[in-house]
Structure of Peptide ABC transporter substrate-binding protein:
Amino acid sequence: MSAAVTTVDMRPGGLWLAFSQNKLAWVGLVLLSLIILMAIFAPWLAPRDPLEQDIVARLQPPSADYWLGTDSYGRDVLSRLIYGARISLFVGFLAILIAMLVGTTIGVISGYIGGLFDQIVMGVLDVLLAFPTLLLGLMIAAMLGASLENLIIAIAVTEIAPFARVARAPTITLRQRDFVEASRSYGCGPFRIMSRHILPNMLSDVVVMSSLWLASAIRTEASLSFIGLGVPPPAPTWGGMIREGFENILDAWWLAVFPSLAILLTVLALNLLGDALRDASDPRTR
């Protein structure tokens, strides 16, 4: 008898059960919702143009005029922080989406075919997994150059191998299930079996892990921006703001503290949501 594959119920009732069992998930949901709304309505929420410079008001501490102070060019930190959420979330979501599509496809095909093909593919993925995420992203971003598109590609490549690993394991189990054997007996081809029978039964596992790896993608984006391999200035990015604040840490502490708190809250929200969904998919915690 083939082993059963446990997945999280992604229907509204199943999601409600997941959140009801983990109260901290509501904290993550509220935090992430506020950050997303802040990014969407940035033109209306930002008090000033994030690129507008005022040398007279440079390095002003938090005050009634500038709630989070100004940077070394006199730009409003609050406005840049709000607009920076757009770049961080856009890069993170798009990079994870690309990695999920490519990695899941590779994992399902490799797990279904098996044999020598599976060994070769997994060997290549093991090489990618041998590099730390930040180091691999750093090498790719350095080769491609600093731009928004190259930053997304670099982060996506670092997350392909984990997605492929997560997709491959349930595929190996599912390909031996009775309903897959029945599909073969009816003459269904490999593509139809993988797309109609295997992928829907393991997609929830991938979605759950994507919520956790999204936090890693945002951290990687901030780290690459910090070392100058992210979106080129003067575009407001949280990592770039921290870099500027690090250069003025003794004179203007607010430049590094506030974008760091923004990254901390975003990663915390994503981890709380991901942990809740992961716990819901584990039968030992249900």
